[in-house]
Amino acid sequence: MNKLVAVALAAAAIPGIAWAQTPSTTITNDQLSATIALPDAQQGYYRGTRFDWSGVITSLKYQGHEYITPWSEINDPAVSDYAYRGEQIATGTSTTMVGLPEEFASLPERTALGWEAAKPGGTFVKIGVGILRKPDEQPYDHFRQYEIVKGTQWEVEKQANAVTFKQVINDADSGYGYVYTKKVALVAGKATLVLEHTLRNTGSKPISGFVYNHNFMRWDNQTPGPDYAMHFGFDPKPADPLGDTPLAYNGRTVNFTRTLVGKDAIRSLPVGFGNEAGDYDFRFENTRLGIGLRATANQPLYRAVIWGIRSVFAIEPFIRYDIAPGQQFSWTNTYQAYQLPYRQE
After folding, report:
1. 155: exposed, middle or buried (C-beta count within 10 Å: 0-12, 13-18, 19+)?
2. Does residue 145 have a pLDDT over 60?
3. Distance of CA 234 to CAs 275, 276, 340, Å?
4. Is 185's pLDDT higher than 90?
5. What letter does residue 139 receive in the DSSP assignment?
6. Where is the signal peptide (predicted)?
């Protein structure tokens, strides 16, 4: 077992970097191959202050298909979220991401740990990123790139079919601290990828918030459209009228009514789920490619969002946590790749 330690976190406005130039490792079994970017403040694929730096999957291959492909062509630090540049899409430093990335946010204000109490120049904590500096009195914006002033080191343990990440944070100024571990593993003999997490509160204050997986879907570079379908483990209803949004709710399935083009954008909040972990169950399928991907978890849903533009779409499932000092919270996300028609394992 190899053990690597990533360099200390640092803030920077960075240009786009080719994946081939970034530190990464690949895990395989007899059905799946996953390439995982390693945290690195100088050369890492992701150095923003929005998403968790660990377990960034830049490739997931199954039966000759690629489940993860880039949805933007330009990384421009001047861009907040994303912007159209003619036929291309530009994304900012905190948004340039692919695959199955996760973001943590605090409740009740949906910011970051200690943000409200921090004065300009003071520190706050973003789980999975590090200790950040609050620059001014502007509202918290997860698209904004914040200075990482007190970094940590990521401990990374690699195996043939798994990679485990560990981050230790202790911010005496804000009173927040944690030990976060995340394991990305392939299940032997199955086309299944598992994300196992544990978040232990080592600070003096409760940690209350949510974590969600963005689930960027762009398979074999195929545009979102009627070839794709989203299936739910509950009977979803849109929280708000769809209007001219090119989506259709049909029982437990949500379809695209047409291919997304130009500046098309979709956003809908499916409701109707309960408090059981069984409702955290989503299947993405593509009839043209003949493949699907099922996402489940062992914790209940807190919220769900359907989002997309012409180059990518997602179901973003949220998990809620409340962790008292000295306590920990664990959760697991499971992804099963399959060929159509879907067969329950």
Report:
1. middle
2. yes
3. 11, 10, 21
4. yes
5. P
6. 1-20
What Cα–Cα distance (Å) separates residue 215 from each residue in 60, 158, 174, 249? 12, 24, 31, 20
Please report which helix (H) or strand (E) contains residue 337, including its range: strand 328-339
Burial track 278-316 (b if 16+ CB lie within 10 A, e otherwise): ebbbbbbbbeebebbbbbbbebbbbbbbbbbbbbbbbbb
Residue 193: per-residue pLDDT? 98
Q: Where are the domains of the chain?
A: 2-213, 224-311
Q: Is 10 helix (H, G, I), strand (E, B) or coil?
A: coil
Q: What is the pLDDT of residues 25-46, one digit of tens each?
A: 999 999 999 999 999 998 899 9
DSSP string covering 258-310: S---TT-EEEE-EE---SSGGG-EEEEEETTTTEEEEEEESS--SEEEEEEET
Residue 226's DSSP bridge partners are none
Residue 3, pLDDT > 80, answer no
The residues, ordered by sequence, that sit 6+ positions from 239 with a Cβ below 8 Å of its Cβ are: 268, 269, 270, 271
pLDDT at residue 152 tops 80: no
Helix, strand counts (H, E) of the chain:
0, 28
Q: Give the Cα separation of 26 and 311 in Å (integer).
A: 25
pLDDT given at position 4: 38
Instruction: Kindly report, residue by residue over 292-314, the tens digit of the pLDDT.
Output: 999 999 999 999 999 999 999 99
Write down the pLDDT at residue 8: 33
In 3D space, the residue among 315, 313, 296 whose CA is nearest the CA of residue 304 turns out to be: 315
- Do the beta carbons of residue 319 and residue 208 sit within 8 Å? no
CB atoms within 10 A of CB 233: 19
Provide the token pair at 334: 């499971």
